[in-house]
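A quick word before the example. In earlier lectures we treated sequence and structure as two separate objects. From today on, think of them as two lines of the same record. Here is GntR family transcriptional regulator written that way.
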Amino acid sequence: MTADWSTYRELLLPAVSGRRRAVETELRRAVRDGRLTTGTRLPSSRDLAEQLGVARGTVTAAYAQLVGEGYLTAKRGSGTTVTAAGTWPSDSRPEPDPTPHWRYDLRPGLPALNAFPRAEWVAAYRAGLAGLSDEELGYPHAAGFPPLRAELADYLGRVRAAVTEPEAVVVTNGSAEGLSLLCRVLRAQGHRSIAVEEPSHFGAAEMLASHGLRVVGVPVDDHGIRVDALSTTDCRVVLVTAAHQFPLGVVLHPERRHALIAWARACDGIVIEDDYDAEHRYDRPAVGAVQALDPSRVVHQGSTSKVLAPALRLGWLVLPESLREPVVERKRHDDLGTETLRQAAFAQLLRGGGYDRHLRRTRALYRKRRDALIDALAREQPSWEPIGVAAGLHVVVRLPPGTDDLALQRKYAARGVNAVALAHYVRTPLWPGLVLGYASLSPDRLREAVRELR
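And the structure line, produced from the sequence above:
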């Protein structure tokens, strides 16, 4: 195939600034978007340099680079041609679906991102980095940065009454990775099913299923997961949100806590305690971790996502001794360990008291916001019944019998209000409800949002 070489000035010159990289980049783009088709013979380096007004060496170097990348082929006596060795994707891609912009976003699970302690985090990051030795800038320990593991063990013992030691703590890239690691280790140990609360977060159930585990729902009542129903399943692993059940907001009753441990001992089982937002309790101190009742049977899981921000992607597992080595080994094979700089910053924030100060501030903030939401609902929707304890970042409201909560969600979405139906979290029929997050909106904005829920 031949080409009219006089056209290359018009083809390439508008984007060429005279530097080698500019010529190289524009030639590459011309191949990829189809302006230069497979088999097209290019001008000699001398001719193209004259057309573009650049040095011959600039074109020679650009040709050589693109030959090395496989875009062009150069043969003595045949010149340089566009390669036929492959096809190149177009640079034009369809626009992704835009993220919905809600007038009032009441989805559960998001903290007040505008309350993130930016100044304290920057200071902690700088201090953490300054304190790292040259050796600590190498590949991280698969189980986590040792100073952070020590700080987490101290924090969890002090705030959550967990029974732990630094050696039991594994730092992960958020709680999702922690759950993923556990799934693969447990499956390798012979587990084929896992029990979850019904209702529960659909994302967790989907992740469990994606790792080849059969998910079995166990009903929740006013006292938490029904351990009697759990005992009738063939599962030897269960995932629970004991301190603040998601989404219903109930607390696992003391008798159920002991029954859960007895179940695990009887069947040689494991309890995974997802402690996702236990620090946010507004009317009284949160109950201690179930893990303290039997550290050999309970995996305690937490993260910074509900206290600081999901963007940090920092989580942790407190593991029974029997699971420590296989989980750390799985983590090593996955990614060699969580990035050290974030861990060093978080360790500094814990050590210096910044994490505790932030929690005190946000507890007061969220309590006011929850109170504003509950008061507004009482005025505007007196037939709606709030469910669960004063805790966390969301509240569930029970709707009158016969209400279609999915239809209601669609109705509110048309008004720009993101109010999630309880039906999204259930696998078997339950009463109609809405799961309303309040942490990310001010009291005034929450009152405005409730006025739209008519």
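Notice the following. The longest helix spans residues 354-380. We will return to this example when we discuss secondary structure assignment.
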